[in-house]
Amino acid sequence: MNRIAQVFETLEYGPAPEAPDQALDWLDSHGRAFGHFIGGKWTKPANTFTTDNPATGEILAQISAADAGDVDKAVKAARKALKEWSALSGFERGRYLYAIARALQKHARLFAVLETLDNGKPIRESRDLDIPLAARHFYHHAGWAPLIDTQFPSHVPYGVCGQIIPWNFPLLMLAWKIAPALAAGNTVVLKPAEFTSLTALLFAEICERIGLPKGVVNIVTGAGETGEAMVSHDDIDKIAFTGSTEVGKAIRSVTAGTGKGLSLELGGKSPYVVFEDADIDSAIEGLVDAIWFNQGQVCCAGSRLLVQESIKELFIARLKRRMATLRLGDPMDKAVDIGAMVAPVQVERVRDLMQRGAAEGATIYEPDGEVPSVGCFVKPALVTNVSPANSLVSEEIFGPVLVAMSFRTPEEAVALANNTRYGLAATVWTENVNLALDIAPKLKAGVVWVNGTNNFDAAVGFGGYKESGFGREGGREGMAAYLKPVWMKDLKPAPAEPKRSDRATNPLDAEHLDRTAKMYIGGKQARPDSGYSRPVLGENGAFVGEVGEGNRKDIRNAVEVARKALGWGTTAAHTRAQILYYLAENLDARRTEFAERIKAQTGADGAAEVAATVARVFVCAGWADKYDGAVHSPPMRAIAAAMVEPLGVLGIVAPPELPLLGTLSLVAPAIAMGNPVVVVPSATAPLSVTDLYQVLDTSDVPAGVVNIVTGDPAVLGKVLAEHDGVDGLWAFASQETSTAFEKASIGNLKQTWTSRGLAYDLMDAQRYGAEFWLARATQVKNVWVPYGA
Ligand code: NAI
């Protein structure tokens, strides 16, 4: 009875090792020592460090550490190659990418074995996932290259891209970075992580072999110092980084105010939510892929299990049973589930964190069984008995350690899931499609997997919310991240702001009652906390009026009410459009009054500016229900819905010139996309913005969606930049102030756009295109939903 089941219980697996010979031969053919690949040539090995096999401790090769001089040579080679490469037709560039994809497939086993030797990941994973996905990325982008002219009209490549990648998916991360960059016409300098440089070096050889023009791809090896030299190099146009949040923040700070393009794909602490009606066995298999895939060294690892209280005991019991069957050992063995971690320092890090968590009261379960005495092996672990405050719950462990908690209601599940500074990915298991699709939009994460986990595809964007970074890789969004509008390169420095006297008399207006412009917070007019006012003067120093001197407290109040108004983002797009149309209508009805106000403050004829503003708001109303997502069909039985979501609360520092048009050119796209805003009007002409209160009130703009705080833009903008309740900041400001804002934004890694003292011709609405702002007002969340009965 039950004989087959019994056989499976006792079946002993024999070892099924993969042969390392060809990979070792390849290392030997290079004398086990590597230089850098710069301008299509190999430099002599110099300043070397060792790279070893973390499963055995054996030294594999000597790698060179690039200094600032080497980085500079690589940047120069990339710059030299740029002109010809970007001038090739998309089809020509696509042919090179296609040849790379083919070559990766032809040498797939060599890449897979080398990856496993260098990284310690099970050969099953490098063979079935890392390398095929890397090839898929090059195929997908070979397809993009000839489409760019028509799909991204009036866009040009950034130029030279500096790309810094981590050690957890060495070749795959290289593919994610290099494929879109090259398809768009950029050239690159890429630095692999110091622990895992070998497949990048083999890739360089592939570039040579297929005849990729020299200097299009340059590979420099080294540790953090090499990365730093890249980030601070003046002649790099864009930095793309994947790695820790800590280094991501340092990079954000160094690049502040430089105008360099920047994408950051950082850490995570992704929730794995299991509802009581889930298919439990599938959810447990999913969990194995979520947290024990690649020894848990995965930025989007489902490392926080949230299971519904009613099934918790059963689920945990079955999970432990499954954990006991995971095979840990030689990563070159094809039947192994858990291989070696990348390096001793990572093992130590994980062990330290576990000790800390245990000291804070956590219970840690590890299945029985021996761990090899040599090599970086860590048993799979399940942590229970924890509160959200435990370090194991809040910190990214980056190891095979799952932390389990329970919830009672869907609302509690969402609250727990979002209770993290990260927002990379999330998984939801339920057989109820309505519940899944109700929860997915509420999860603050760039990727949501329903009834599946860790699915990746080149056609589907990947990237984070919050401190998991910004920018997307893959999909249309990922392609767009390597292109910029052509007008960007024509921007000229803005003229200096006219100096105006700050002394003025305030004669009694013979005709009108005195009028006080207050702050506008939560749909109400509020006096400034400071109790001070600042004068607004016309061109000739004539007194025009006074506005409140806003301070930190006013901004805090405004952000608080803006956060309460985040529901604006889920208001139907049709409704948002109707409100914006109404705003345009009401503004139009008061044309003369607004034009006079502009004239009084700036001396310019305001009529044209008001007319342009009405048109701008009207256009943004039109976009509200059209700038939306897509449905991708990845090569598996699933769809991925790319949903366009608002960023959250946006801080806006308006330009000094064109006070009404400048402000509404930013506010209208921001609110059209569902973001509540806190606006700081210009210092010179704030009355055009404070006059908007009544227009906003009569246009049915809900309270808290538009908040206005007057005062010194440089001071108030910095408070907005530092505020963790603000998700994005747009600022017209000088170079110096823009740099200060971007540096101040690293706390919660808010997305920023600053004008850096450059002049924008806002009267010419067509020139910049509303889509530029709509893209900056939104982020894409990809929701994967499998199908098939
Ligand atoms: P890391 O962020 O230091 O390394 C990633 C890459 O950045 C490597 O190529 C490294 O050489 C480079 N780098 C380091 N310092 C730099 C600097 N100042 N400027 C420019 N580049 C620099 O990550 P590390 O130390 O290897 O791992 C530590 C922790 O980071 C992990 O335990 C994990 O929590 C997290 N991590 C997250 C990854 C992700 O995919 N989100 C990947 C790797 C690590």
Automatic annotation (TrEMBL):
GO terms for molecular function: oxidoreductase activity, acting on the aldehyde or oxo group of donors, NAD or NADP as acceptor. Residues 42-485, 540-752 form the Aldehyde dehydrogenase domain. The keyword Oxidoreductase applies. Pfam families: Aldedh. Coiled coil: none annotated. Keywords: Oxidation, Oxidoreductase. The active site is at E265. Belongs to the aldehyde dehydrogenase family. This is Aldehyde dehydrogenase. It comes from Devosia pacifica.
